[in-house]
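Z., the sequence and structure:
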Amino acid sequence: MEAFAYVCPVKTYFGKGVMKQAVTAELQTVGKNVLLIYGGGSIKKSGVYEEICGILADAEKNVTELSGITANPPYEKVREGAEICREKNIDFILAVGGGSVVDCCKIIAAQAKLDEDIWEYECVRRQTPSAFISMGAVLTAFGTGSEQNNSGVITNKQAGEKRSLKGAYPLFAVLDIDCARSLPMDLLVSGAFDTLSHCMEIYFSLPDEITVSDEINEAVMRNVIKNLRVLKNDPYNESARSELAWDSALAMNGVLKAGKRPAFQVHQIDHQLGAYTDCTHGKGLAVIQPAYYMYTYKRAVGKFARFAGNVWGVDGKHLSDEEIAVKGIEELKLFVKEVGLPTTFSEMGGVSGEIFDMIAETTYIMDTSCEKLSRKMIMEILKNCI
């Protein structure tokens, strides 16, 4: 294992029906002026918006709202939110939504305290912000694990890039399945696959040796697979939804990363796909990940063979490690199809081969257990996704 320092400062409230009590308690510790940030109209249709507004009113907070945070949140919304924070002297940001809303809020919390452009500050000058407006998160969708860390993925259309920036850690996060009761099944499945993707990316990060973190990771991956299969037959199964919510948190709260050098290469490719299209993150990952592994697995055959046996239950009797490894990747691709996610860009729609050059040129390349990529290899992987 690599040396590490483990810190997860996010207080997490987990459980059906915990939202009101949790948010009420936490609002007692923050300032008067609150910026409520959310996405579209889904939280109003579900009743979550009304509940949150009632809690804020009872706490006698001065509330300003910022809505319209979309998937692949644009940098313009970071600027807009930071400007509101300065104008209204905001003390606390409450994010209500999925990973895109939480990501955007974490970076707004940093930009509002920074005297210069945060994209330039982080991406060009390679500096990390150290002052933030306090924030909390109420999740209405699960999968990204964004509420467990201080990274936020933002799309800068002008730069033609989608990058992970550093922002604020939430003071608290609420994982209450009642707040996600109206989440459509396709988004639920897409989010759960994002969780599985996080686990796989960490698992196939260096070092190649199997660590205790990897063994915990195998259990989380099996749990995601099992509960996604439950939901396909019983979409409103509360136990399965709860398990997937906690899987999402475990995948990104640092436990699985301990002793590893986390490298999210598939995410880097998909981020650039998202910079040029409006594709759903989980769906893009579902297409790219099996193709990436089939193209690169030979650098880590032993680990892929273990993944096939311990996660997918592949019977390796009378098979070579390479044959077992390939069967595991094939099981992953079959699972993608089983849960209703696309297996190709053609199935997903909205992706043209004309953007492959731009994706390959702008993807950040990372060193993983899999073969280290070149621009040419990224192009080949993308072509294999058609």
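The domain at 186-384 is CATH 1.20.1090.10 (Dehydroquinate synthase-like, alpha domain). The first helix runs from residue 19 to 27.

Let me know what you think.
H.
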